[in-house]
Amino acid sequence: MKLNERSVAHYATCDSPADHAGFLRKRVERHHHHAHHYGTSYQRRWFVLKGNLLFYFEDRESREPVGLVVLEGCTVELCEAAEEFAFAIRFDDAGARAYVLVADGQATMEAWVKALSRASFDYMRLVVKELEKQLEEACKSLAACRKSPRRSSSSGRKRHLSNPALLPLQEKPSILENGYSTWGSGGCIPGGAACPDHDGAQSKPPPLPPRRRSATGSATGSPVPGLSPAMLESPVSPDTVCFSKLHNWYGQEIVALRQEWQERQKRGHL
Amino acid sequence: AVLKKRLVKLVVNFLFYFRTDEAEPIGALLLEHCRITKEEENVFSISFIEEPERKYCFECASEEQCQEWVEALKRASYEFLRRSLIFYRNEIQKMTGKDPLEQYGISEEARFQLGTHQQ
Q1: Does domain B5-77 have CATH number 2.60.40.3230?
Q2: What is the percentage of chain A residues whose pLDDT exceeds 90?
């Protein structure tokens, strides 16, 4: 499967801040057809979490990741491995491989599990929706406040009020599309902050990342690098199939490279 | 340049593409640090920051669909979501004096901080 690997490597290594980073030991997964088991082994890798993507590098100075895990449709849980401070990333797709990782202490393990549990795009989207609602409610109670100043319940919130006639979006910083800052402002407004009819629902903390689902863009289209008329919905979670392929993609590259290198070694080349 | 008919699917911040009769994708584009540009009629392109002259072009069935795709793709990155979150958090904080993330116990996390993700 093709991937825009230069862009991916660039994203992984550029100086946009990582959400979490550090050394972890990663269990080596042997293919099931290796009948003889030499026991489990671990490789120390430099891990970088950016958004919903967990990259790992051979070492901290590597210029390209050797692997990528897309953190969608997965759970992160503590592990009953022989190793202390082990945790695993497991996918809803039973066929997808799990990643067993080992931290060097309780604190680093907990920090990783926490960071990874909240890394999914879906979780982020959930939080953004919650905040969107809250902003609408804040707008609304502001407007209500203005209409009926006797409402003392809202008075406590007047400290930092901006003019309700001025939609908050007016003051927005230039929201740069897709993180593409050097290309000037993309001018994307993150959703509207209109005030719908909405009774103040009790805000609950966003649940842990949902196990399923992702938005599929609607596409009806025609020929040419086209957008086909039919959006095929496979009954068997097509999304995790897609991400499994991505995970395997990196694995295959490395296996191939390693074989190549070993061949050359045998032949006495550098 | 030859144009090929593909089934294209946006899943979180990835654009997968398939041959029209296959269930597994033949390729994917990670949609971070990319620019979505409306080109000529029915056509949009995706390009990436480290190689701006290389464009992945897509032709749609109609101008309307083209606009839908452009809008969807512009909002498809994790970075865009993050910026939205930071923006809303800041606005709510200004309006109500409270940090909306506090009750979720995530107010200290790096990914949600104002100012850390300006590039």
Answers
A1: no
A2: 39
